[in-house]
Design goal:
Bound molecules: guanosine-5'-diphosphate
Shape: globular
Strand content: 15-25%
Number of helices: 13
Distance between the termini: 19 Å
Largest sheet: 7 strands, parallel
CATH topology: Rossmann fold
Helix content: 25-40%
Number of strands: 14
Length: 318
């Protein structure tokens, strides 16, 4: 396949964790110059645990781009061991959120740097440099904007809902606490404003992409640009995680078309899976440019293929 011409230009990509990281890896590999890519990552999942600052999406994206990710889980590190967690469990400490021994080094060093006054975006840049990641990875904000899940059992902190309760409580909505007063991290708005195109990864729309869009200035910065989203819903289900369950609980039939509807007015281009080809006409009523292709990123080659297909299409149909 020929190199997509658009790949010569500047791209911004909005991403959450696992689905976001896989697509980001493909885009990075599809570009002749990975430094032309800026990845803007959700921080709504971030929380403090054992006094340490944990940034699950940022770490998943960085580990994946660096080739350090755990292929079995999609999160955490390859070749991980769990000796610290086992010792914590013996002491009666919390072991519901699994932190591997290698992964702990990231949280320890990040927390040390934060306490010394270094902002999160600089820490992310330093870690990426240490891990050999050439793309620019930015947290959407350096401030704490935790996602709160409104459930039929009341409000739950995101990791309480997602990991401890294994996303079983029924959701009624979401709140991004403090988003309205948060400032985007340095570089975020500049990157979006100067981008030739913005990509939205097949991440969870409600808890990975919406918290990025909730940071003041982000929506305005991408308005009017080519913005291409890839559907995380394939064949009416999420490839992984609670996205389809969330659509249902919020009163919508989960489908690629429902994702397109969710992004109405924001995206100009929408990518849906071959399995959902019959929805293409309906999606075209919502988003002007529609591409049907294989979006299942089951291995590294398929991630790059999907990225190349999307970038070439954006070039043909800007
Ligand atoms: P999280 O923060 O770790 O939950 O990760 P994301 O929000 O970035 O990704 C979760 C979403 O990615 C889910 O809704 C999945 O359906 C979607 N996803 C994961 N793998 C794939 C894939 O190979 N193709 C597509 N189209 N979506 C995927």
């Amino acid at each position: 396949m020929t190199q997509p011409h658009l790949s010569q230009k500047h791209l911004s990509l909005l991403a959450g964790g696992v689905g976001g990281a896989k697509f980001t890896y493909g885009v990075m590999r599809a570009l002749p110059d990975p430094a032309s890519l800026t990845v803007i990552v959700n921080v709504g999942d971030d929380f403090e645990h054992f006094g340490l600052k944990i940034c699950p999406d940022l770490d998943t994206v960085c580990y994946t781009l660096a080739g350090l990710e755990n292929p079995a889980t999609g999160w955490g590190r390859r070749g991980e061991s769990w000796r610290v967690m086992e010792a914590v469990a013996v002491l009666g400490g919390p072991d519901w959120f699994r932190l591997g021994d290698l992964d702990l080094a990231t949280h320890l060093e990040r927390t040390r740097r934060l306490r010394a006054g270094q902002p999160l975006h600089e820490i992310a840049a330093a870690f990426c440099k240490a891990w050999g990641v050439k793309a620019r990875v930015l947290p959407v904000t350096n401030e704490s904007v935790p996602t709160v899940v409104l459930t039929d059992e009341g409000e739950l902190a995101f990791q309480e809902y997602f990991v401890r309760r294994r996303w079983q409580p029924r959701v009624r909505g979401f709140r991004f606490a403090g988003a309205e007063n948060a400032r985007p991290a340095p570089g975020v708005l500049e990157s979006l404003r100067t981008a030739d195109a913005v990509l939205i990864a097949p991440s969870n729309p409600f808890v990975s992409i919406d918290p990025i869009l909730a940071i003041p200035g982000v929506r305005e910065a991408i308005a009017g640009k080519p913005v291409a989203a890839v559907s995380p819903i394939v064949g009416g289900e999420a490839v992984k995680g609670p996205a389809a369950k969330m659509f249902r609980e919020l009163g919508y039939e989960p489908s690629a078309a429902a994702v397109a509807e969710h992004y109405r007015g924001l995206v100009s281009h929408f990518v849906l899976d071959e399995a959902d080809a019959d929805q293409a006409a309906a999606v075209r009523q919502i988003v002007p440019h529609v591409l049907v292709t294989d979006t299942l990123m089951t291995d590294a080659t398929k991630r790059v293929e999907l990225a190349r297909t999307v970038l070439s299409w954006l070039e043909r149909e800007p």
